[in-house]
TrEMBL record:
GO terms for molecular function: ABC-type transporter activity. The lineage of its organism: Bacteria, Bacillati, Actinomycetota, Actinomycetes, Micrococcales. It is found in: Cell membrane; Membrane. This is Transport permease protein. Its main location: membrane. InterPro entries: ABC2_TM (IPR013525), ABC2_TM_bact-type (IPR047817), ABC_2_transport (IPR000412), Nod_factor_ABC_transporter (IPR051784). It comes from Curtobacterium luteum. One of its GO terms (biological process) is response to antibiotic.
Amino acid sequence: MGTAIIGLHRVGYELRSYFRAPDAVFFTFLFPIVMLALFSVAFSSAPDIQAGPGVSVDYATYYLPGLVATGLLLSGTQALGVDIAGERSDGTLKRLGGTPLPVLSYFVGKIGMVLVTSVLQTAILLAVARLVFGVDLPTAGSRWWTFAWIMLLGIATSSVLGIAISALPREGRRATATIVPVVLVLQFISGVYLPFTQLPDWLQDVASAFPLRWMASGMRSVFLPSQFASAEPGGAWHLGWGALILAAWLVAGVVVCLLTFRWNRKDA
């Protein structure tokens, strides 16, 4: 119980630190909201995207699912990766290692911060989509159930991958240059900005090995009409495969965290 209580206190500390960093707030918290506004305004006069006779959506509706998924990856993998690498470089982790703070409590604080910011970010994104751009949100309970498990699994996977990838940068100042390009490339090959099946087959295969492709297609199954499944590989959402691949990355990320996380780098 002591570890859990300390972890909950760490969540509050991490949230305060997060929202006091303007670059983190803009490039992780506000980024999906800004991108939705840009795409919606830029394509406001363009014809709707068709998925068959009489089935179409506007660009705000089309881009919303991918940006919801992107927000989870940014809040988890990118934000935690850069943050923890910086704490390791400036000596914060070394100082924490000299205190009674349990490693598990530290992780609870970080992952709790990702959970809170992801839920808040997604809520704002959906509110902007509905109230500002007139996006019709799902009404079926089954779709919201799909949304909930994809979101929770995506948050967990993105968080442990953020902790794992934080071991890559040798210095905190290089963390952004090391981690952000990886996250950016994944956005472009995972069906967030471009229709996934328009990519070359080999690039689809590469993207399908990573979590964001499945998070994005899962969210499309929630927010887009079912006819849009015809634009996915194999003409289906493949939610089962997505869950398995996300779970595999979650387990792999936990293993890497256990093997690599140290309060202080041995090569520092």
